Amino acid sequence: MTDPLAAHASATPDKAALIAGGRTVTFGELHDRANRFAAAMRELGVGEGDRITGLGYNSTEGVEAAHGARRCEAVGVPINYHLKPVEVAYILNDSGAKVVTVAPEFLEVADEARKDVEGERHFLLTGPGTPPPGWLSYEDLLAGFGDVDLTSDANPLGATMIYTSGTTGRPKGAYRPNGVNVENVLQVIQIFGLSAVDVHLMAGPGYHSAVGFFSALTQLLGGTVVIEKRFDAAEALDLIGRHRVTTTFMAPTLISRILNLPPEQLAAADHSSLGQIITGAAPCPISLKERCIGYFGEVLWEFYGATETGINTVLRPEDQLRKPGSAGTAVAGQQIRLVDEEGVEVPVGMPGEFQVSNEWLAEYYNRPDATAGNTHDGFFTVGDIAYVDPDGYYYICDRKIDMVISGGVNIYPAEVEAVLFSHPAVEDAAVIGVPNEEFGEEVKAVVKLKRGASATEAELIEYCRERVAGYKRPKSVDFVDDFPRDVAGKLQKRRLREKYWSGAGRAI
Predict the structure, then answer these.
(1) Residue 181 falls in which region: left (phi positive, over 0), alpha (psi -120 to 50) or beta
(2) What dihedral angle (degrees, nearest 10) is formed by the CA atoms of 253, 363, 166, 172?
(3) Among 132, 149, 249, 341, which has the minimal tally of Cβ within 10 Å of its Cβ?
(4) With contact defined as beta carbons under 8 Å apart, do 262 and 287 qualify?
């Protein structure tokens, strides 16, 4: 397939490709800077299959680097900017990244992470500022290359590796060495009715797979992406009106934050251009859907999927209130089965583990054991429980594994529990998700202290704050004398969660 960025740069060189903070980058300029970045990467020894990571808020440099990585057939690895230095170092070591681009806001985090990074890495500081000793300047590096053409016929979205945690507590890279299948890309474009005239608002963090994916689709088509550096509800609503935004992807939490703006601010805003709000990554309560449709109109689309499995089901605008609680019907080409504990398919209406087989499936980088553990007869699962109604609509109703989803972000308790277990006063600990009106779930720690030891809720929360990213940190701690366990001594988290979820009207 012909490089889409090169095609748009040739056909519409002066059209806005990116708008960020009052600055406009045309397709011609983006094409040129992506070439320069690719040439710089070649100069630094980056070749096919090598990894390039990025740590920063949404930016034009992040988009340039993504296109440039594709042109030198490298693998883009976005890093969650909430991570602590030790967590960043783990991803750099595990991915084996050769190059790390870092925004000025995260210079200290990345420089601290360098102490724990094994082997040689090239650290590039984007934006203004003087790079620390041993670092390179992103702008100086690009300026060293003139008129170069490294247009690639590689996959238009490029190879990717996005880190998602696991029940062992260590993040794993969901790796697609050849990117997303082109036919699947075209299918998603057709499903959501995307086109070259779209103006897409990139509101959520670009390290999130869906945020990056839908922004990339707009560029693939030759549309314009409006980049919000970091989500702010009032700014997002203003950008929609100012730039006549037609599409956006937002996790339910972001939609809620917009709708919670003062009534006079909502009434004064112009959102008439907005034709599609695509949501996913976390359950969207029916009450939020009703508010969203009441304000924006029938523009809400919802999908169910995972970083590892792509988009599996879609719920269209006309079905949002007709099928409350549903995640939609299967996308063509998705083989979905719901199975019981013995792997036997369950009948219509009965909950079972959601397993899918398709051409989207990713593998876990250097973790064949983890890939195999989530794969059953060619079907992949992330542990969600669902049922399907007689009309073919799927409902995600529970979670088999312990994962917490807060604000659309996956949090795996084992990672936080490992930190709590390292506290000298803690004998036993369990981390669970409990209801939160804004984020869907929030992290709670339940702790048993050692005999004669003492620790306060504030002390344990602060202990976690120093060791894991803020979004993983427990928001509250309950102390218990013992935990519910089965006859084999295994902790029964489902029973532990029950008292917090009773009366919530939902299980996730």
Answers:
(1) beta
(2) -90
(3) 341
(4) no
Task: Enter the tokens of residue 53.
Answer: 């990571």
- Phi then psi for 438, rounded to 5 degrees? -85, -45
In a structure prediction context, what are the per-residue pLDDT tens digits for the chain, which is 508 residues long?
A: 678 999 999 999 999 999 999 899 999 999 999 999 999 999 999 999 999 999 999 999 999 999 999 998 999 999 999 899 999 999 999 999 999 999 999 999 999 999 999 998 999 999 888 899 999 999 999 998 877 777 765 666 778 899 986 444 578 999 988 888 888 889 999 999 999 999 999 999 999 889 999 999 999 999 999 999 999 999 999 999 999 999 999 988 899 889 989 999 999 999 999 999 999 877 787 888 999 999 999 999 999 998 899 999 999 999 999 998 899 999 999 999 999 988 999 999 998 999 999 988 899 999 999 899 899 999 999 888 889 999 999 998 777 667 788 887 778 787 788 788 889 998 888 898 898 888 889 999 999 898 899 999 999 999 999 888 888 999 999 999 888 865 445 577 878 888 888 777 667 7
Residue 419 to residue 50: CA distance in whole angstroms: 32
Name the token pair of 315.
């719920």
Question: Which 3 state secondary structure label does DSSP give 142?
Answer: helix
Query: Which two tokens mark 167?
Result: 């029940």
Domains, in order of start, for the chain:
25-178 (3.40.50.980), 283-399 (2.30.38.10), 404-501 (3.30.300.30)
- Secondary structure of residue 56 in the 3-state scheme: coil
Torsion of CA 434, 435, 437, 438, to 10 degrees: 40
Give the whole-angstrom CA distance, residue 142 versus residue 32: 10
Beta bridge partners of 337: 355
| Residue 279 β-bridge partners | 302
Provide the terminal-to-terminal Cα distance of the chain, rounded to the nearest Å: 41
Q: List the one residue out of 90, 19, 106 whose CA is nearest residue 54.
A: 106
Vertex 422, ends 417 and 428: CA angle to 5°?
A: 55
